Amino acid sequence: MPLVLVLLAGALAGCTEPAAEARPGTPASCGPVTATVGDTDVTPLTPAPAPALPATVTSTDGVVTTVTDATRILPVNLYGSIAEIVFSLGLGGNVVGRDTSTTFPAAAHLPVVTPAGHDLSAEAVLALAPTVILADDSIGPPETLRQLRAAGIPVVLVAAEQTLDAVPGHVRAVAAALGVGAAGDRLVTRIEADIAAARTGTPTDAAPRVAFLYLRGTAGVYLIGGRGAGSDAMIEAAGGVDAGSAIGLAKFRPLTSEGLINAAPDVILVMSGGLESVGGVDGLLRLPGVGQTPAGAARRVVDMDDGLLLTFGTRSGQVVRALADALHCRGPR
């Protein structure tokens, strides 16, 4: 279920429980940390591939689509991962627009076609005259995609699964639609090597218990991630235990003080924008229940850029490495 479908829920409940103590054997407290990657931009393949078109592919919704022109590509989804793939394939110069989650420098100048965050503006899309649209079912509404197809624009939908294991399939699906299958295989090899290298040396013992909180304080949205939320995959790859999954939560659920205390996280993981929306670390610690967790008592808060943490794009290896360093109180490797 896309994250946006659960953002209408969520309220905090009060709590008067005493603060919990850190579990023995977990990494020593290093206070609040911002997990950062060394390079904030994507790295394209060189030389850039030449699309072999037409290419006929089957979207995840079963629609058979033929792409005849890749000179004006519009990659859009909730997470920004599709744009990362297109730019990393070396075809960034053909991209004509972006979604709000695509924030890396090479794409920052492009016009946004999702003014509502996850809803496409048909008018904005048509104004860009794309020759192919690449999307997944995290973006909508469905009637807009149908309208764009009716206008004669090839719309190719790829899978929306947010896991590290799904990244190679996403890359190959995008590459096939753009007629650069061999380049897609090269990019998959690079990504898999990056992820494997990032996991090398990550401690497997004394794994910190990590709760991912999705926060939008200005909108009154407070959620905790569980199994299948995407955050669980990143936490586990970085050598942590997902606290939400450990207490039986699935996807995203409204945050309550009782639930957070039961989760007993050693570390609280948030997006940087979400942390800012609640007034930084001090504001986060004032939310009911946070101060009563081992993480709150030790001020063990890790934040990461909104355009990186749950993207599951071509920079996933860098994200895993940076997150592992932050969770385990290590300097950048």
TrEMBL record:
Keywords: Signal. Residues 1-22 form the signal peptide. PROSITE patterns: FE_B12_PBP. InterPro entries: ABC_Transporter_SBP, ABC_transptr_periplasmic_BD. Residues 74-331 form the Fe/B12 periplasmic-binding domain. SUPFAM superfamilies: Helical backbone' metal receptor (SSF53807). Gene3D superfamilies: Nitrogenase molybdenum iron protein domain (3.40.50.1980). Belongs to the bacterial solute-binding protein 8 family. PANTHER family: HEMIN-BINDING PERIPLASMIC PROTEIN HMUT (PTHR30535:SF4), VITAMIN B12-BINDING PROTEIN (PTHR30535). This is ABC transporter substrate-binding protein. It comes from Micromonospora wenchangensis. The lineage of its organism: Bacteria, Bacillati, Actinomycetota, Actinomycetes, Micromonosporales.
